[in-house]
Specification:
The chain is α/β, with parallel strands linked by helices. It is 33% helix and 22% strand. The chain has 11 helices and 15 strands. Strands 5, 6, 7, 8, 9, 10, 11, 14 and 15 form a 9-stranded mixed β-sheet that branches. Strands 2-3-1-4 form a 4-stranded antiparallel β-sheet. Helix 6 packs across helix 7. The chain starts with a helix and ends in a 5-residue tail after the last strand. Bound molecules: S-adenosylmethionine. S-adenosylmethionine (SAM) binds next to helix 7, strand 6 and helix 10.
Length: 323
């Protein structure tokens, strides 16, 4: 039994490497190297709960940090995650431990004060709290989460991070527009950081991180992604912006879902995304037999490197239908 598990894990590892090679033939060696190395601990200073003084506390504890490439982001140069978690700054919600890639979706949402925002798959709340920090908690965010345990964590994090202007719903986001007719075409900004196969979390030197990985994406997961993005479509106001993100490099869950939404609707358009980081490429417009809408070139794939994990971003605007 042990042996067959071991073989199947080894096979999985080979298949993952082959998949990366087929997606990124020119850079796959670098990518495989980067996902075989441990990433440093990274965090965001939560400007809702104060700011720079937290850095002084870290220094007092002998923790050394360096500014990261994104707003309020830091890389830990000396010190462990545990040591950070023991500081009062962390315990008082002045610091949010977060991967850099995970900080990107709120940064492209163009959220402004007074916007009404929906986070349709919100727990544990890293991006909801970041969105509210961007506007100084002057936007209002509705956070939806289906999993009751993760919902509790979300509530805890929103409170700890000093977010006041929020509403939180423990429910299936797929039915949101049916169960809440008041939310039909209501939100100015929507983030759908979708549940996904999390290939970005694969660490080749930690077999546990890919033990449940499968070459074929789960049909059920894709059904959920389609249901959620369609719910986002119905609850987005004309003129509003939807950001769809995943932490996977799986084409079916990324370009496949975006292309599906474009085909299902007549008034969603993809907007260009500007990130100011080097490790990105446009989304695919074709891959083997799959041909996607040419505007998929506006989506972005984050290529794993020393600081970033694999991620996918698409930014839509809902345009008025001219009759
Ligand atoms: N955006 C979060 C953050 O940055 O902290 C991470 C979100 S995680 C990628 C996806 C979340 O969607 C999970 O917490 C999962 O429980 C939730 N989820 C899955 N299916 C859902 C559904 N049908 N409706 C609402 N939430 C769902």
């Amino acid at each position: 039994m042990k042996n067959s598990q071991k073989i199947s894990l080894l096979e999985k590892r080979t298949l993952i490497e082959e998949k990366i090679r087929s997606l990124y033939p020119d850079t796959y060696r670098k990518i495989i190297h980067s996902i075989s190395q441990a990433k440093p601990t990274t965090f965001r200073i939560n400007t809702l709960n104060g700011g720079a003084e937290v850095l002084e506390e870290l220094t007092e504890h002998g923790i050394q940090v360096q500014k990261g490439p994104l707003p309020n982001s830091y890389v830990v140069k000396k010190g462990s995650q545990k040591e950070i978690e023991a500081t009062s700054g962390y315990q008082n919600g002045k610091i949010y431990l977060q991967e850099f890639s995970s900080m990107l979706p709120p940064l492209i949402l163009d959220v402004e004060k007074n916007h009404i925002v929906l986070d349709l798959a919100a727990a544990p709340g890293g991006k909801s709290t970041e969105i509210q920090a961007i506007t100084g908690d002057e936007s209002k965010i509705v956070c939806v989460e289906k999993n009751p345990i993760r919902f509790e964590r979300l509530k805890y994090n929103l409170e700890l991070q000093g977010v006041k202007n929020y509403e939180i719903l423990l429910e299936n986001g797929i039915g949101l527009y049916k169960n809440h007719p008041e939310y039909s075409e209501y939100f100015e900004r929507i983030l759908l950081d979708a549940p996904c196969s999390n290939e970005g979390g694969i660490h080749l030197s930690e077999p546990k991180s890919y033990a449940s990985w499968d070459l074929k994406p789960s049909k059920e997961l894709m059904r959920t992604q389609k249901g959620l993005i369609m719910s986002a479509y119905h609850t987005l106001r004309p003129g509003g912006i939807l950001v769809y993100s995943t932490c996977t490099f799986c084409i079916e869950e990324n370009e496949g879902i975006v292309d599906w939404l474009l085909k299902q609707t007549q008034n969603m358009e993809l907007l260009p995304i500007s990130l100011g980081i080097p490790n990105t490429i446009p989304g695919f417009t074709k891959f083997t037999e799959d041909i996607f809408h040419p505007s998929l070139v506006r989506t972005k794939r984050i290529i794993p490197d020393a600081l970033f994990t694999a991620f996918f971003l698409a930014k839509f605007r809902k345009v008025m239908i001219q009759i």
